Amino acid sequence: MSHNRSAENDLAPGAVLPLLRTQRLGRAYEFFSACASTNDVVRSRAAAGAAEGLLVVADSQSAGRGRLGRSWHSPPGQNLYLSLLLRPALPARHATPLTLLAGASLARTLANAGAAPRLRWPNDLLLLAAGEFRKAAGILTEMATNGEGVRHVVLGVGVNVNGLEFPPDLAQLATSLRAVCGRAFDRVQLLVDFLAVFENVYDDFLARGPASGLVEWRRYADLGRVCRIDQDGAKVEGVATDIDDSGALLVRDDAGGVRRMISGEVSFSTMW
Hints:
The chain has 6 helices and 12 strands. By secondary structure, it is α+β, with helices and mostly antiparallel strands. The strands form 2 sheets. The chain has a 7-stranded mixed sheet. Strands 11-10-9-8-12 form a 5-stranded antiparallel sheet, with no helix packed on it.
């Protein structure tokens, strides 16, 4: 694909829609040169009855969000900020692997583009920069329920594609595809490739459960290292050994017991 599109209009519908290889995801597409948060737009559209597959992309965000209420650095002309509307016909307790399945799909997409991604449970994608793994992408899923069922899921993805500068508080923690690989990447190609991979993984999940998608997640996973999980004020230390079929992280503590973590913030010993 040509890299000659201007950064101002490369993500416009006329550039993206002809390249889609999906059946549903992204066929309804809204693009904003700027918005507060693509997740907020999709959540609003979902409340108004929008169908599954709606894709919202912004060139920049003024209030992009990560996990735990953190902001997501979202300058214009450089990166990918997208949100998808999903309406899986599932009990809410069965929808939790979606974050990991999206991470696995994104990792495969970036690996196919020439990067060497690693996934850190539950929602971070890392690249090796300056001798350490730094965050290059994140996934934020927000679910609304009807009783025990899923009403909708907003799947938000932010990828640092071509940015080379970060705010001081992120400079030692974040990186981008361009910074690591030494070349510019085509945002549209990454977008349409991710959608194609994720739609296949998502459809397989709906038809057969999460097992094959979680195998893909493990392929890129940052496992086998000593870690600490902060969960609701409590700290659990041990070795992150695996995930289970629900997507929970399994941590073996010093006594040999295995703790099942369904949420929390993971850090590794080199970060303490």
